[in-house]
Amino acid sequence: MQPVTIYTSQFCGFCHSAKRLLSQKGVAFDEIDVGGKPELRQEMMQKSGRHTVPQIWIGDTHVGGCDELFDLEYSGKLDPLLAG
């Protein structure tokens, strides 16, 4: 299974939804909370080109945010991406 990294903040509903989907699928992920940590938010922005959370990577693939994660799930593409 590919490693999953998700940049989040504590009070973000989209972050909670994305983490819930991954957890329901039994996917372990590394969570990086950028709340109150401008250096981590800057790192996320440099890697993704985006300033909103969540930002999700599966392996080396930048998935995007919560909507993109759910789009992958609904289209049947999330499991193959997770499997590598």
Explain this structure.
This protein is of the alpha+beta class. The chain has a single domain (4-83), classed as Glutaredoxin (3-Layer(aba) Sandwich). The chain is 45% helix and 20% strand. The chain is built from four helices and four strands, in the order E-H-E-H-E-E-H-H. The protein has helices spanning 13-24, 38-48, 66-74, 78-83; strands spanning 4-8, 30-33, 55-58, 61-64. The radius of gyration is 12 Å and the shape is globular.
* Total helical elements: 4
Give me the side-by-side strand order of the main sheet: 2-1-3-4
The CA-CA distance between the termini, in Å, is 6 Å
Q: Shape, please?
A: globular
The chain-level mean pLDDT equals 97
Whole-number total of structural domains: 1
User: How would a textbook summarize the main sheet?
Assistant: 4 strands, mixed
Write down the CATH class.
Alpha Beta
Family: Belongs to the glutaredoxin family.
Keywords: Cytoplasm, Disulfide bond, Electron transport, Redox-active center, Transport
Protein name: Glutaredoxin
Function: Has a glutathione-disulfide oxidoreductase activity in the presence of NADPH and glutathione reductase. Reduces low molecular weight disulfides and proteins.
